[in-house]
Amino acid sequence: MEHLRISIDRLLERINSLGEIGRIAGSKGEWGSARLALTEDDRLGRDLVVSWMRDLGMTVSVDGIGNAIGTWPGSDPTLRPVMMGSHIDTVRTGGRFDGNLGVLAGLEIVETVQRAGVKLQRGLQVAFFTDEEGARFAPDMLGSLVYVGGLGLEEALDVRDSDGARLGDELAAIGYAGSMPCPAVVFPHAFVELHIEQGPVLEDERLTIGAVTGVQGISWTEVTITGQSAHAGTTPMRLRRDPMVVASQVIAESRAVARRLGGTQVATTGRMDVYPNLVNVVPARVTFTLDLRNTEEERLQQAEQAMFSFARRMAAEEGCDITFKSLARFEPVQFEERMISMVERLAVELGHSVRRMPSGAGHDAQMLARVCPTSMIFVPSINGLSHNPAEDTAPADLEAGANVLLQVVLQLADE
What we know:
This protein is of the alpha+beta class and 415 residues long. The protein has 12 helices and 18 strands. Strands 3, 4, 5, 6, 7, 8, 16, 17 and 18 form a 9-stranded mixed sheet that branches. Strands 9, 11, 12, 14 and 15 form a 5-stranded antiparallel sheet that branches. A hairpin with a 5-residue loop joins strand 1 (23-25) and strand 2.
């Protein structure tokens, strides 16, 4: 079965067809997709992918959090299947490849196996998980977290977005409140996720395949600083209680902490709300997010402690109140050495350059790693871009990654 290869034309056709749902234009003629979780466009995307699963003769099941799994049976029904997949929801400024590649490459593997008449001992599954991005409902990887039992179904269904919409109601509204239990009753034999790197390393080093060693730990915190709204022209500086000053100090310090810790530590503030948000008024309240990530749990805890301590001190000096709300907290995940080595070895056998590397972004694979052997395969992102309509990967790299996925899955399915 070493001779089997996927069809890049079929894969690209599905990627572009799904990308048309929620299509958005970039600034330089490029295009991507905006399909926030549990919106009408998400429903349309789900319907399209499910129709492709059924066209391939796969049995489709949907669980209580809306995760959809297509199954192609193997020759031995007593053996647990090998699962591929990712997500099809996007951020508001999404591209066509993030998440979608892992799902649609999975369908391409199933079709390749079917067309070749290959009989596998284990069945093949392709899954797309609900709300991986966390762009609408926190935390991210919510669907896969519920799938593995890391978050209770009822608690997840009660999560609300920034407009107050309840996840369970939105899930029912798009028709994907399924009947399969959460967590799953039977977990897969293994899970493999093909994904774009979403960073610049592979392209910078002119490499084709990343054998992912694990996923960084993630700490998302919402910080709210409350001061005193006042007139910008008549209030002396010494009498101000300005939450914006505190927020700016904290944000600047987060970068300083990341640099001091070094290694894989990163820090980001991606969202900020200011009230009353007027040019001539000292703000009354500032709310912003603090995203800290590290591949080492001890270092991640050091970053959290340093930032929370600094923020409290700056707020006290300015006479402001400060509160912290955890939006998501996941420890770093290390994939099994056997799975990493399998990706690495098969990529080399196919003639591709490869390196081991951690993932700086969160992925459904880090949740599946709790319940079964898991691996990820990265392919280069042009200019390192993702979460952007300019997100792109060369067809040759997509083909290479999908063929590595194919060989990994073939080996796992005959274990």
